[in-house]
């Protein structure tokens, strides 16, 4: 924007479970950042700004997938979204939660944010067949704000990762998408 700009509403580039936000799950950008698959354990959580967590072990002791490595850059060059979580183990492989998208807002003057800007990661879907663990969560994406002056007026700017899924009937045990209004971690699904 040439001049001043203001965001009063919600600029949302977040993932919705397995559907990535705009720019999320970018091929090549997530090499090493995607969560690893579980043999029967849970899929690993995706990494982006920080490494993802290892998936939970299955009740038989079968380990969960490895968490994804840090991906992306602190300078957001190139600007890409978050990475997907790994799929949980079991008979029917599924996909993990998707990565949050990428948002860039540039203003030559004052950028005022009085609303929300988010790029949250998707929650890991549950494993519907009951023979294996749930899917890992997607990482949050990237938010790049550029201006001569940045004013935050009750703003919520978040790119949180999602919560991991669990095993269970009909896939109803899904993890939460990343939280938009706080830094409280998203909840994983209950077993």
Description:
- The chain is mostly beta strands.
- The chain has no helices and 8 strands.
- The strands form 3 sheets. A 3-stranded parallel β-sheet has the order 1-4-7, with no helix packed on it. Strands 2-5-8 form a 3-stranded parallel β-sheet, with no helix packed on it. Strands 3-6 form a two-stranded parallel sheet.
- It is elongated and about 60 Å long.
Topology of helices and strands:
Layout: E1 5-7, E2 10-12, E3 102-106, E4 110-113, E5 116-118, E6 142-146, E7 149-152, E8 156-158
Parallel strand pairs: 1-4, 2-5, 3-6, 4-7, 5-8
Total strands: the figure is: 8
Uncertain spans: none
Rg on CA atoms, Å = 17 Å
Strand percentage lies at 15-25%
The overall pLDDT, averaged over residues, is: 86
| Portion in helices | under 10%
Shape: elongated
Succession of helices and strands: EEEEEEEE
Main-sheet strand order equals: 1-4-7
Largest sheet: 3 strands, parallel
Number of helices: 0
Beginning-to-end CA distance, first to last residue: 48 Å
**Helix/sheet category:** mainly beta
């Amino acid at each position: 924007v040439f001049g001043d700009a203001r965001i009063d509403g919600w600029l949302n580039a977040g993932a919705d479970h397995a559907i990535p936000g705009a720019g999320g799950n970018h091929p090549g950008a997530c090499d090493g950042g995607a969560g690893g698959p579980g043999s029967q354990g849970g899929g690993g959580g995706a990494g982006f700004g920080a490494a993802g967590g290892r998936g939970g072990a299955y009740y038989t002791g079968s380990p969960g997938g490895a968490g994804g490595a840090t991906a992306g850059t602190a300078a957001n060059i190139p600007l890409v979204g978050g990475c997907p979580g790994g799929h949980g183990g079991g008979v029917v492989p599924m996909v993990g939660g998707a990565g949050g998208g990428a948002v860039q807002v540039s203003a030559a003057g004052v950028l005022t944010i009085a609303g929300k800007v988010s790029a949250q990661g998707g929650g890991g879907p549950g494993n519907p067949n009951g023979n294996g663990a749930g899917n890992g969560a997607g990482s949050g994406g990237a938010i790049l704000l550029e201006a001569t002056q940045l004013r935050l007026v009750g703003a919520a700017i978040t790119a949180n990762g999602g919560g991991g899924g669990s095993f269970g009937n009909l896939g109803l045990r899904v993890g939460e998408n990343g939280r938009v209004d706080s830094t409280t971690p998203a909840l994983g699904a209950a077993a």
